[in-house]
Structure formats: C-alpha cells, structure tokens
Amino acid sequence: RKRLSSAQMQTLLSKGDAHRPLYLVVACEELRVFGSFERLSERVASLSPTVERLFEEVLERLEREHGATLVCQFMCALACSRHGMRADELCKLLGVWQEHQLDACLDRGRWLRLYHSVLPYLRIADGMLDFFHQQLYFAVEQRYLALEPSAPQVVSRCVDRRYQRRRANLAKPASGGGALRSSAAELALFTSTAQLLAPPLRGVEPNRLPASPLYLTTHYRVADYFLRRCDPLLDRRWTGHYARGTAELPYHQRRAGLWVELARTLSDLLFVQRKCRIGLAYDLVQDYWMCSKRMHALEQLVRMHYNEQLAASARAVLEFERFLQSRVHIFSSHPEQVFAAALSLPDRSAPSTLALSRWNSGIEQRSHLRWTNKLQHFHPCLKTFAGHDFCVRCCTENPNPDVPHVLSGADDHNLRVWDRRSGAPIATLRGHEGSVLGLCYSPQGAWIASASWDRTVRLWNGRTHAAAQLLTDHTLPVYTCAFSPSGRLLATGSQDKRVLIYRGQCNAKGKLKWNRPAQLVATLSDHTNMVSSVTFSPDGSLLATAGHSLCCHLYDVSGLEEADSVSTPSILFSTPHQQPYARDESQVAHWKPINCCRFSPNAYELVTASDDGQFIVWNLETKQGQARTEHKDGVVSIAFSPDGLLMASASHDNLIILWRTNDYSRLTRVVGHTGTVFNVEFSQHTSKYFFSSSFDRTIKMWEVPEKELPMDGHDSRLLGCKFAEQGDKLVTASRDKTLMIWDVQRGSVMGRLSGHRSNVTTCAFTDQGETVISGSRDSTLKVWDARKETELRSMDGHTGIVTAICAHPHLPLVVSTGEDKLIRVWNYHSGALLRTVYGHRASVSCCEFSRDGRRLVTGSEDHTLKLWDAGRSFKKVATLCAHTDAVMACAFTADCKRVVSGGNDRRVILWDARNALKLAVLERHTAAITAVATSADCRFFFSASVDGVVLQYDAERHNVVCSFACNSRVCTLAASPLGNQLAAGDGAGQLYLLQPVFGLNSRYHSRTVVDQVLLGNILGATAADAGSGKQQNAHAGERAKRRRRRTRRGGQHRKQAASTTSKKKAERSTKTSNRVIQQPQ
C-alpha cells in the first residue's frame, strides 16, 4: 500500500485546486498508477495545478498506454452518448471503428486493459458506463470534439472518411429499399444544413457553437451501429428487437445531421410501434419534438432548392409528430393500435398514406377494424394528459417559457405536473385531504397555490414542487384562488361566503418568499352565498369576485400591496341579478349561480359565466352588459387569449366554444371531452393553443382552429345505436336530446328527430326501418316516423330513466327496461302497455330479443342476467349468475344458442342459452364494459369499454381477433345484420363505422367479403345473388360428379393392385417350393 510522505503531501496540497475534492481524487489516482516509486516526488511536483489541466494529463497518459486513436474513439463514444453506453456496445463499436468491418469486435485483451485503466473515472449505473464527473466530459470535448481541438493529429485519424464521402458520392440503394441511403444531391443538400441545424455539444449553450467533424462522425458511427442492431437486414422490418438501439437511434441520427435517415426512421410505423411496445412512447414524442423545429427549417430550405420530394419528407415527420402526440396516451398502453390508428387519419396525411401502402403491398397482414366514415381533417386535440383517478377540476400552464410544465388538480386529492412537450407525467404533489378545486401559478412560475375541499390553501415551490405553506383561515371548502399580476397578493374564495386576501413576504434582497408566513390583509364578506371565482385585473388594481349569490362584485385593491397596508376594500361595482321565480327576460342579468369571472386583457370588459347557460360581457365604463347563449347547459369556465382576440367558454354540455372578442361571434365549437369541461385556459405564451380539464379525468391541449370545424353529427355523448334490418340505415341516440338517422353507405346524416326533454338513452328500428322507437331520461318512450321525421306517439309508464329498449323481430312489441327495476312490454302501434314483468332487484340496464323471438334476456345492476319466455306469459326461464358487478350489456347470437354479456367487472362472458351454462369468461378490457354485439354469421362477437377500445373475438376459440381504439370512451355498439359492419359511438359524440379487415394469412380471410365486395353491391344484390347461387349450385354439382368419378376410378385401381399383389405372392411361393424339392437327399 503506497503512502505519501509529509513533504509529498505538502507539495500536493499546495496546488491551486487542492481545495477541491475532485482534484485530490484524480491526483491520487494518477499517483497510484504511476510506475516508479523512486520518482514519485518528482511526479507529485509535476502534477498540473488545475482540474482542467489534470484531466488533460489523464487523457495523454491513456493515449500513451493504449494508443491515441483507441482512447479518442472510446472517449468520444461516451461523450456523445445520451445516458451512457453498455460495455458490450463500446467493445463492438470500437471493433468496427478500428477494423473497418461490420461484424468486427475489439480484441478482448486490448479491451480489458483499456477498460480497467479508465474504470476509476467512470460510473456504472444499471449496466451503463458514463463519465463520473462532468469535468471529464469538458476535457474530452476540448481535446477531441471542439472545432479547434487541442489534439488535432489524433482527431484527424479518427474522423470517418466514409462519412465525409457521403456528402459527395452517390450511394447505391439497398435491395428492397431498406438501407438508409440517399442520392448525392439529397445528401449534399441535407448534410449542408447539418452545421446549421445540428444541436450543440453537451454542456455548451444552445446555438453557440456548430458541431465538429469528429462529433458528427461519432454520432454517425453510433447511429449506424444501433441501426444494424435493430434492423440487421436493413429492410425496415426491425427484426433485431434491440430495445437500446430502438431508444437511441433517432437521437444519434439527429445529432449526426442525418436528416434523410431521421425522417425515414420517424416516418416508419413499425419503428413507432416497436418503440411504444418497449414503453418509450413518451420518449418517442420527445424525439419528434426535438427535431420538429429543424424539420420546419428544413422544409423551407428544400423549397428554396425546388425539391418538393424532400419537403414532403420533412412534412411527413411533422404529421407523424402530430399523430403520435394526439394518441400517445393510447399507444403507451395499446402499442398494437398504431397501424389501425394511422389508417384512421385523413387520407392525404402521411401516416394514413404509408399505412395504406403497406397494406396494399402485402407488407402488413394484421387483421384490424377499419374506420370507413373517418374525418378528413385533423382533430384539433394535440395532446391528452391522462393519469388522474377521478375528474380533473382545474389546469393551468407554467407562465415561465423556459419551463414547459402543465399543472392539474383533481378529485383524487393530488396535483400533477406534466411535460407539455411529450405529455409525460413529471411529478405528483400530495398533501390535500380533499378534492383540489382551484390552482394557479405565480406570475413567474416560482410558486403554486392550490385550493381544496379540505378547507385549506396550500402553497408549493414551483421549481422543486415541495410544500411551502399551509393557509387554514377558511372554515368551509375553498373553491378558487388567484395571484395578483405582481405575485405579491393571493386571493381565495370559499363556501363560507368570504374572500380572503393574503400578502407574501420578501427577503432582505426584496425577493418574494411565499414559504414564509403570509399576512392576511383583507377579508371581503359581501357575498350572501359561496364564492366560486376570484380574478385580478391585468394591472392588479381591481379584484372581481363572483359566486352563487348571482352577482359579481368589483373591488379596488391597488393599495393592498404596500408593506403596511391592512384595510377592507369597498365595492366599486356590482352586476345586477334576478331571482329565477321573478325572472325578467328583458333585463341582462344572471338568474342562476355564477361559476366564473374574467377580465379582458385590455381591462375594459369583465365577463361572467353562469349555470343559466349564458355569459355576459360587462363594459366597465358604461356598466352595461350583453349576453350570449349558445351552450345547451351551464357555462363553467371562460378564458381570454393573450392577444385578447379570442375567448373560450366551457360548459356542462361537454363543449368548448371559441369566440371572436371584437363582436363576440362564434368562431367554432370544439368537441372531444366526454364529460363536463370544468376549466379552460389559454397558453400564456401564445394564442395558438389552449388547455381544458374535464369530468372524464383528462387534460387536453388544443390547437385553435383557423375556421369553423365541420360538425356532421351529434355534439354530445352517444348513448345508443341500432341498425335497420336491411343494414342500410342506422339510428343513434345522444345526450343532446336528439336522435339521428344515418345513411350507412355514405356515412352521412339523413334525418334528425327532436322531442325528448332530456337525454335520449336508447333507440331501435322497427317495421323494416320505417319506424324508430326511443327511450329517454325523461321516463318516456316515443315512436317516430323515420321518413317524415315526426313523432307518432309517446308512451308513459316508467317512473325512472328508460335504460334500454328492444323490438320483437316479428310482432309489434317493444320491451323497455328502466331504473325502476321493471320490464314493460308495449304495443308500439297502439301505445298500449301489455304487461309489466317483475324479477330483478335493481335497475335493469339492458335487454335483447333472440332472432326467432322466443326468448328475451335482460341484465341488471343486481349482477345477474335473466332469460324469459317471450311468448304470452313472459315467464322466467333461467337466471345467469357469474358477474361480480352490474351487468351493463347483453346480446343473443344469431343462432339463438348463446348469449354474450358484459359488465362493470370488466368481464365479457359467453353463455349457453339452452342450458344456462357459462362457456367462457374473457377479461381483456382495463375498464368497465359498456356494450356488446354479435355478428350475423355467429363467428364473432364484440365488446366495447370505457377504456375506449373495441375488441372483436372469435366465438369458437374465444381469442381476440383484432381491436380498434376510439378517441374516447365507447358508450354504445351495434353490429350490422349483414355481418360486414360495426357501429360504435363514443363519449364525444363521434360515430365510428368499422369494417373488419383480415390479412391474407388470416384464417378468416377466405370467408370475409369486406375487401372484396362493396357495401352498395351487398345491399343491392338480390337477383344477382340468386343467379350466382344457381351458378354455385351448378358448380357444386359438377364437383360432386368429379369426386364420384375419382372414387370409382380409385376403387378399380385398388382392385387391380390387390390382384397383382396376390399373383406375385403366389409366384414367390411356387419358386420356394421348387427349390425345396430339388435339394439332394
């Protein structure tokens, strides 16, 4: 064991950086490996006095011991890695770099000597090697990777000449178009932008220094290595299944300036699916985001060179980015949905075009459900942040442009911080013991305030997300909170009818510190009911408060920011109000509770939103207001864009409406949430985006549309759908109190039926599609003329919500079920109630007749299904018990032999309807089952769930054949009587007409007609079907005759063969006997 003498120690401690522990660690390691103990004092004296120069000496020593080129390549590979590299990766990479062979590996002896020499300066975490200190990276960067390196001779030997030649030489395309190669013109164009567009070195400020040749060479080498590990055949099938390579390939291609290769990688559906499958969906979104700005610049650059093909490649990456961002919450848990989701985009989009070309060329053979009536424009929803366990009450964006965070609060008592760029969760703030009802950032994003049902207001550090302070002055739940524009004041409103104003303290340097005890400077008690909203004016001089007292108060709070000011501001202005029982429609005033109030950016107007379905714009100079009413339910939240040109309003009707503020005319309606939109907030940095939080437990980021979006269909949740018997029409029931009749072939609306007073929960066709029957939340059933779109009659009798109806296939009977636990049988021609059936002990949620009309099945929240004799008696035949929660859906198969059911226990159960036996239990969904359906040929059955996925099962094998992920929760499902189409409706009001499509290698392909016969031909095939049937019978007869002939011929051949065999046996036996007789005595 070596020890330094006191003189040597004194010499070492006299160095300039000896006070730094890092210097002592590196110096002692250099002295430990020094070979001559007699010259140790001389070596101590010669050590460099600074850490930077000492690391330079370390690199020089390693070059002398192991070779300058090898050390340079090793250090550059580690320096250019994102999170370090594995030892086996470095060994193979250095072997390829040294030997210039694809399958070469560094000699084991050389590798071990180098590895053990460098090991003291590395850290190993999860099998990854990386520098143990950032200072070593700076030394490597200065010596090898800088534009003017300190070891230019070593660098010149390490720069890859083949990478240099790629800029000018024409590379041959690989067989099958698999290898990442480009023409000379493309390479010259794209690599000429590498210095301009490539990201800076690690540790260097952005856009300060361009990348050096060795830096680009290293990233090129690493990218090529990972590419060959992931795609050994270079055929874009990614058969290597190397997770590390899949994760790191886009990063190194981008750093190397390989824009053509990067565009092809990020525009590859199979690569996207591979990366999502290994759990890196959010990392992939980050890859797109990192290169999106450069792709925008690249698109403009290639347009200047008049190369539209290269511009299209850049646009494809941008469209793939939008495609992945909007569905990353789906792909993270269902990566198999990438291909079907790409086909669901507009036809001219790059993902859809690529997916369709893969299918037509036979590369893609997976069975899927194809969306036939898909939208031909991009949905305005850019991202969905999903992760809360209960409804999300509020959301906001960090006002600091350098911190891309989105904050949300929910009924699960937690606040969550999200990465705005990728949609990934960053942190969870726990501390509240009740629902988080309001939150806000301070103006610079340094502090967070949250209001909760637990009667407290909590303050958090906006950077570290640590708890800073707890305010407990309210005696009832706190609904809202807001910082003043200066960040000095905090106002809170509560159910105790009070508004409290706090002032933060400053430290000695004048910096605001909300982690110190806040001072209560004012208490406002002018409201007669709970306070639901508080907001400061843009200059901070005014405070507006509103609540269930039906009015909004305006206060002057300009003097409260002074250090010694403690006073009670007086009311400057109060908006008029009126009581519901004495309402005057000529007066502009709210007559229901006010949910939100906001100042316009110019502070000239104040807008209040109420449960009466309107918002009122108050002019603060004239004290006059103008009302706008387009929402179908109460308005919950409003927000202004930063430039003041737009305003957004959110409502209980699940809609967000954008308004032009010059005349408050509607710009467009935005549909996407499946529940009440509790909060809407514009981005604080741009007017192009806004955020919303909803009862559906999600936060969404939206793009502001430039014009009115087309709205062909319902604008609220679909609750029921049913095909006509001919399969050419479909009727849908919605939460917007209407029904719609659709042309299935065109996917367009044929008619609208209005008349119910509340949500239409269920519907059905009767009389060959001429009549529609509907059930509603208003406890009534209505019969409609589908052609004239008029109401024929209404049937009253239920005392609760009508949950389901089903029409008898042969008789003018309809069965309805409801929350009153009863099953009622009606004659829909006369409207007479024929029978009331008792049996269930809870709400009856579903019902279905068998195709022959002999049986009826019902499902209930008492966890059971019941089979009934659908004759005159309607007696109970059997009770099916296997569900552990409410049964929400049931359906007969077409042969009337089996029943399919689904419930809140996430189970789909297949039953034998003849002997009431359970055949199979399938648990493939991650949330409650909302609907089930069966195909007309009895080969398949389907299920839909709150998780937004529609599954198709094989009725014999009970396995999943294919699936489709909708944009939100699926609420209803129906199968066409023709057996070739499926209809699904989601919580946002979107109707999906789906067709099962099977690949050539699928066992179902030979029997499917989806890709072979158009739907219109199927509907119109009457005489042609009969003629083709005769031809098929004739062909079948001919085949039978040929089989009989072959059978007869085969029999004759067998007889001849048998006789020949017997003759040969007889001849052999005769010869044997002759030989025995001729033997001598």
Report on this structure.
This protein is of the alpha+beta class. Helices cover 27% and strands 31% of the residues. It contains 22 helices and 61 strands. The strands form 16 sheets. The chain has a four-stranded antiparallel sheet with strand order 4-61-60-59, with no helix packed on it. A four-stranded antiparallel sheet has the order 5-34-33-32. Strands 6-7-8-9 form a four-stranded antiparallel sheet, with no helix packed on it. Helix 1 (6-13) runs parallel beside helix 3.
Task: Indicate the structural class.
Answer: alpha+beta
Estimate what percentage of residues fall within beta strands: 25-35%
Largest sheet entry? 4 strands, antiparallel
- Taken from the alpha-carbon principal axes, the silhouette is globular
- How would you state the average pLDDT, rounded? 85
Helix content: 25-40%
With strands numbered from the N-terminus, the spatial order across the biggest sheet is 4-61-60-59
Whole-angstrom Rg: 37 Å
**pLDDT < 50 runs, ≥5 residues:** 167-209, 1007-1034, 1069-1081
- Determine the N-to-C terminus distance: 105 Å
Report the strand count: 61
Q: What's the helix count?
A: 22
Write the SSE topology.
Layout: H1 6-13, H2 21-32, H3 40-46, H4 51-66, H5 68-80, E1 85-86, H6 87-99, H7 108-118, E2 122-125, E3 128-131, H8 134-145, H9 152-158, H10 161-165, H11 184-191, H12 194-197, H13 213-230, H14 243-255, H15 259-266, H16 269-277, H17 281-304, H18 308-331, H19 338-343, H20 350-360, E4 368-371, E5 381-386, E6 392-397, E7 405-410, E8 415-419, E9 425-429, E10 436-441, E11 447-452, E12 457-461, E13 467-471, E14 478-483, E15 489-494, E16 499-503, E17 505-506, E18 512-513, E19 519-524, E20 531-536, E21 542-547, E22 552-556, E23 571-574, E24 594-599, E25 605-610, E26 615-619, E27 625-628, E28 635-640, E29 646-651, E30 655-660, E31 665-671, E32 677-682, E33 689-694, E34 698-703, E35 718-723, E36 729-734, E37 738-743, E38 748-754, E39 760-766, E40 771-776, E41 780-785, E42 790-796, E43 802-807, E44 813-818, E45 823-827, E46 832-837, E47 844-849, E48 855-860, E49 864-869, E50 876-881, E51 887-892, E52 898-903, E53 908-912, E54 917-922, E55 929-934, E56 940-945, E57 949-954, E58 960-965, E59 970-975, E60 982-986, ...
Antiparallel strand pairs: 1-3, 2-3, 4-61, 5-34, 6-7, 7-8, 8-9, 10-11, 11-12, 12-13, 14-15, 15-16, 16-19, 17-18, 20-21, 21-22, 22-23, 24-25, 25-26, 26-27, 28-29, 29-30, 30-31, 32-33, 33-34, 35-36, 36-37, 37-38, 39-40, 40-41, 41-42, 43-44, 44-45, 45-46, 47-48, 48-49, 49-50, 51-52, 52-53, 53-54, ...
